[in-house]
Amino acid sequence: MRNILSRLSADLRGVTAIEFALTAPIVIAALVGIVEFGRFFYVRSNLQNAVYEAGRYHVLNPTASSSTITTQVRNNVTGIPTTSVTVVVVNETVGTTTFKKITATATFNLLSNMLPSTTLPLSAVTRVPMPPTS
């Protein structure tokens, strides 16, 4: 019996395959997570930029309607379906200054099903001053 155990402990064939089988799932999960969250931050940044650009459009075109501003946000968004983007444009007064507040919300869908929830919420807000009315 002792002879069989000493021969098995000295046999190193297959050790690499076992080490790979133990570490590969962890490495693959980490790589998938890096890619997924990289995509998430890219889309979040892109949504924020689209809202910023719509605010800039409003500053340059102060008579633009809310539907035109909504269209500007949807035209500038990439990485997610534009139909999933909800845009709300409201006037907001702080003191004596009136602002146009543009809020966009969307849902980010993960490509992998490794997490319990495969969707993450996104939102972006900007506020631009409206020109004073005469």
Sequence-ordered SSE layout with sheet pairings:
Blueprint: H1 2-10, H2 15-60, H3 66-76, E1 86-94, E2 97-109, E3 119-129
Helix pairs in contact: 2-3
Overall description:
With 134 residues, the chain is an alpha+beta fold. The protein has 3 helices and 3 strands, in the order H-H-H-E-E-E. The protein has helices spanning 2-10, 15-60, 66-76; strands at 86-94, 97-109, 119-129. Strands 1-2-3 form a 3-stranded antiparallel beta sheet, covered by helices on one side. Strand 1 and strand 2 (97-109) form a beta hairpin. The longest helix is centred in the N-terminal third of the chain and has 46 residues, at 15-60.
What are the salient characteristics of this protein?
single chain, about 130 residues, alpha+beta, three-stranded antiparallel β-sheet, 3 helices
Unreliable segments (pLDDT under 50, ≥5 consecutive)? none
Gyration radius (Cα, Å) is 26 Å
Termini Cα gap: 101 Å
Run of helices and strands: HHHEEE
Main sheet properties:
3 strands, antiparallel
Give the oligomeric state.
single chain
Helical residues, percent: 40-55%
Write down the overall geometry.
rod-shaped
